[in-house]
Design goal:
The chain is α/β, with parallel strands linked by helices. It has 9 helices and 9 strands. It has a single domain, classed as TIM Barrel, CATH 3.20.20. Strands 2, 3, 4, 7, 8 and 9 form a 6-stranded parallel sheet that branches. A 3-stranded parallel sheet has the order 1-6-5, covered by helices on one side. The site of zinc ion has 5 residues, from loops.
Length: 223
């Protein structure tokens, strides 16, 4: 199975009445030689995040974690650990609702509450926002712009969230990842997660192919 690419995600999410367009978000930085950004959504999670952090550390890889505010409030020590390890933190809303049809006030509250939850203790400030499911409409575009946030989606969906078998995730990534891609993983999946096992295979292979790993902000800066 091929991973879901950016344009497909956006078409799935687009509401007909919305003037928001794929131009309003970053999906990749195509054409960048041998350089990808790994992103992990929905954490922190007490066991999955710990395991993924130790795998990333083992391979010296920096990634970007898009946190849910509620989870950051529950496990602030994991947020600290991510920051101390040199990873980037992004905002993934406070309670992870579908924001594509939400009204402006709801969108603002979701962004601001997540920001407060993540940053009031850590003093880490991000200007990256990933809407839940990668779905957004006009209200998200407006609220993000007013707060100087960049909307960040992805170009390769590993589908780890759907409990895709490890070998399929590995095949998807190794067949389809190109320089400049933003890869979507999760560090909080209900039930058994295939993500750590997949990472243990994918990371050494990509490194062997000469890839380096950057945070999303680094990827954007290198444009
Ligand atoms: Zn999510």
């Amino acid at each position: 199975m091929k991973p879901v690419r950016a344009g497909v995600v956006f078409l799935l999410c687009l509401t007909l009445a919305s003037p928001a367009s794929a131009k309003d978000a970053v999906y990749d930085c195509a054409g960048r030689e041998k350089c990808v950004a790994l992103t992990f959504d929905d954490g922190p999670h007490p066991t999955e995040t710990e395991e993924i952090l130790s795998i990333l550390d083992e391979y010296g890889v920096k990634a970007t974690f898009f946190l849910i505010g509620e989870n950051a409030e529950r496990w602030p020590e994991l947020v600290e650990k991510e920051i101390r390890a040199g990873h980037e933190i992004g905002n993934h809303s406070y309670s992870h609702p579908d924001l594509s049809k939400a009204d402006y006030e709801t969108v603002c509250r979701e962004i601001d509450e997540a920001e407060r939850a993540v940053w009031e203790n850590s003093e880490f400030r991000t200007r990256l926002f990933r809407p839940p499911g990668g779905c957004f409409g006009e209200a998200v575009v407006r609220a993000a712009k007013e707060r100087d946030y960049t909307l960040v989606c992805w170009s390769v969906d590993t589908r780890d969230w759907a409990h895709t078998p490890t070998d399929q995730i590995v095949r998807n990534v190794m067949t389809n990842a190109e320089g400049g891609d933003i890869l979507l993983f999760h560090d909080s999946i209900a039930g058994d997660t295939p993500t750590p096992q997949a990472l243990r295979i994918i990371l050494p292979r990509l490194i062997g192919e000469g890839y380096r790993f950057v945070t999303v902000s680094e990827l954007l800066r290198e444009e």
